[in-house]
Write a structure and sequence with these properties.
CATH topology of the largest domain in chain A: MetI-like fold
CATH architecture of the largest domain in chain A: Orthogonal Bundle
CATH superfamily of the largest domain in chain A: MetI-like
Distance between the termini of chain B: 19 Å
Shape of chain A: globular
Number of helices of chain B: 16
CATH class of the largest domain in chain A: Mainly Alpha
Number of strands of chain A: 2
Strand order of the largest sheet of chain A: 1-2
Radius of gyration of chain A: 25 Å
Distance between the termini of chain A: 10 Å
Oligomer: heterodimer
Number of domains of chain A: 2
CATH architecture of the largest domain in chain B: Orthogonal Bundle
Number of helices of chain A: 12
Largest sheet of chain B: none
Structural class of chain A: mainly alpha
Helix content of chain A: 55-70%
Number of domains of chain B: 2
Number of strands of chain B: 0
CATH class of the largest domain in chain B: Mainly Alpha
Order of helices and strands of chain A: HHEEHHHHHHHHHH
Largest interface: A-B, 121 and 121 residues
Chain lengths: 331, 296
């Protein structure tokens, strides 16, 4: 086994990027190619000019709204004025009041719990099935490979809202082809599975293709050597392919988690036909309800900012944990 | 370079010639997976052939040929003065316009960051990439509030402008520029007296074309699928994209099952264009860039 690992580690993967020039590190660091040669020796303003539109738009539509949201979250409407913002544009400093109100609200924590429950069902299912299908696509003498790859990828082309409408009709007792008149797909417990299923259906294929391309780019000799040594197809899949797939699985898991934390489209679309889904069912729905239904922009901004902090923290923790796990499994 | 992206047909053929007997277990698993992914779409195709009464009375997977399909389409396109066609056109304008502009902007930025080093370039890149962690969706409300202050909401620009910069697209273009635009070629072009501009337009853009196609498709899908941003920005139904429009249609018809067949045919018609785009372009877009690019 150790010989295999020695080969596997530093080898550039064919089919991804030309050997020797690909990035070796994640976004945080910089590729070594950057420093290899003095560039732009002649004075030119071309790079600044090329970069300017992106930087300008980034400042206008990412940085500024972010800063503005933080600013808003520390304000509150002055009491005793008109009801709507237009009549009474005066806002006063509120300190941490909005944050305290959100954190003290049990419905906020319930919405987070519901989101975690959907994520707890959806993310492991996505990763498990995406990996399973990727390994099957890569298995020797498997048939239907081309058709299956296309079919499983197809839902990615279906917008989340449209997918929710489609599944909505499939769950709905009146139209259900899968026994919706016997099973209540929108029951208080079942609804978590129903929502998670719509999300999994949509992203499964994309994750599968990402994992599959990684598998295809691994050196084939590895598997052939193991086969000559008498390893069965299953053993090769579990003992060799899976550990080599671990870094990509980590990445895919983190992306799925970020996606799950932003759950909004599916429950919002299912809400009109599912009584179990309230207008504050998941955190983002709550932000929307605060800001646009209750006209409490400040509270919505505070909740948004809390969610951003939680997302960043959760992503960092997940990244750390998974990296440790994948490192251990490689050993 | 393109070894990974060969079409599924040739991959299947390669397998078949090599195979003695079929490896059953993975084949069955794949067949089940394909069924799970395709059956809902198949059901919507079949349901779209039924009139509203048939929808509730006939077996779910039995298509109907009593003219239900045609009458559903007629009902959909005449609904509210044919607003469905308008929604479809809007979706196309948002997705195509947004993706095209975004590809130009992110491609230029990625090339600049990948092939030049200048003051602040490293930090600019780091900050932009860190924004991947910022859920774009959570910025929608402050974006709306800011645009509302300058009176820019409720039009096409309000939906397109906030989606033009994609940190991931810039990252992709940067690493692809680094990898595929070799310094030797650039140096040779400089020796030949080409200006930086001409080198970028004549050589750079051509060499990073595969990354640009991938970015265009990713952005097209992202904008086509985006629900929250138009949901927040727009309040005129003539400006809605398909996703918004059909959602509104479901809310309006939510109480009355008599209208379901309109929503069902609308869902079907809005799946078709993107599915076609995928099938026709799948040889050109490089999913391997996604996994290859971010490999640790």
């Amino acid at each position: 086994m150790s010989a295999i690992e020695d080969q596997a580690g530093p080898r550039p993967r064919p089919g991804t990027l030309p050997p020797g020039v690909g990035p070796r590190r994640l976004p945080g660091g910089l590729a070594p190619a950057f420093r290899s040669r003095p560039r732009g020796r002649r004075r030119t303003l071309l790079p600044q000019f090329l970069l300017a539109p992106a930087v300008l738009l980034f400042l206008l539509f990412t940085v500024a709204p972010g800063v503005y949201a933080i600013y808003l979250s520390f304000l509150k409407p002055q009491i005793g004025g008109g009801l709507l913002g237009n009549e009474n544009p005066k806002d006063v400093f509120a300190g941490l009041e909005n944050y305290r109100a959100t954190l003290a609200d049990s419905e906020f924590w319930h919405s987070i719990l519901r989101m975690l429950l959907v994520a707890g069902i959806g993310v492991p299912a996505t990763i498990f099935f995406a990996t399973l299908f990727a390994l099957c696509l890569d298995a020797k003498r498997a048939r239907l490979v081309g058709i299956a790859r296309l079919a499983i990828f197809l839902p990615y082309a279906v917008p989340g809202v449209i997918a929710s409408l489609l599944w909505g009709f499939i769950y709905l007792p009146a139209t259900s082809p899968i026994g919706g008149d016997h099973i209540d797909y929108f029951g208080s417990g079942q609804v978590f599975f129903s929502v998670a299923n719509v999300a999994v259906w949509g992203v499964l294929g994309f994750n599968m293709v990402v994992l599959y391309t990684t598998l295809r780019s691994l050196p084939r000799e590895l598997f052939e050597a193991a086969e000559i040594d008498g390893a069965s197809e299953l053993q090769i899949a579990l003992r060799i392919k899976l550990p080599l797939l671990a870094p990509t699985m980590t990445l895919v898991t983190v992306f799925s988690l970020i996606g799950a934390l932003q759950l909004f489209n599916e429950p919002t679309t299912l809400k009109p036909i599912a009584n179990a889904i309230s207008s504050t069912w998941v955190p983002l729905m709550r932000v929307y309800t605060d800001a646009f239904v209750n006209n409490d922009i400040h509270r919505g901004a505070a909740t948004s900012f809390l969610l951003i902090i939680m997302t960043v923290a959760a992503t960092a923790v997940a990244n750390l944990l998974l990296r440790r796990i994948s490192r251990r499994s490689e050993r | 370079m393109t070894a990974v992206t060969t079409g599924p047909a040739s991959a299947a053929a390669r397998r078949r010639t090599r195979s003695g007997r079929v490896n059953l277990v993975p084949t069955i698993i794949l067949a089940l997976g394909a069924l799970y992914c395709v059956l809902p779409v198949l059901w919507i195709v079949i349901a779209s052939t039924k009139t509203n009464d048939e929808l509730f009375s006939t077996p779910p997977f039995k298509p109907s040929f009593n003219g239900g399909f045609v009458s559903n389409i007629e009902a959909l396109f005449t609904y509210n003065d044919g607003i469905f066609a308008r929604w479809a056109l809007n979706s196309l304008i948002y997705a195509f316009g947004g993706a095209a502009l975004s590809t130009v902007i992110c491609g230029c930025a990625g090339y600049a960051l990948g092939k030049y080093r200048f003051r602040g370039s490293i930090w600019t890149f780091r900050i932009i990439v860190a924004a991947v962690l910022l859920p774009q969706i959570m910025l929608a409300i402050p974006q709306f509030l800011m645009l509302a202050q300058v009176g820019l909401t409720n039009n096409y620009a309000a939906v397109i402008l906030p989606q033009l910069v994609s940190p991931f697209a810039i990252y992709l273009c940067k690493i692809y520029s680094e990898a595929s635009v070799s310094d030797d070629i650039l140096e040779a072009a400089r020796v030949d007296g080409g200006s930086e501009w001409r080198i970028f337009l004549a050589i750079g853009t051509r060499l990073i074309a595969p990354a640009l196609v991938t970015v265009f498709l990713l952005q097209f899908i992202a904008i086509w699928n985006n629900f929250l941003l138009p949901f927040v920005m727009l309040n005129t139904d003539r400006l809605y994209p398909l996703t918004e429009g059909l959602y509104g249609l479901l809310i309006i018809t939510g109480g009355q099952a008599a209208q379901y067949s309109i929503v069902i045919i609308g869902v079907l018609l809005s799946i078709i264009p993107l599915a076609l785009l995928f099938l026709s372009l799948q040889r050109y877009w490089r999913v391997d860039l996604l996994s290859g690019g971010v490999k640790a």
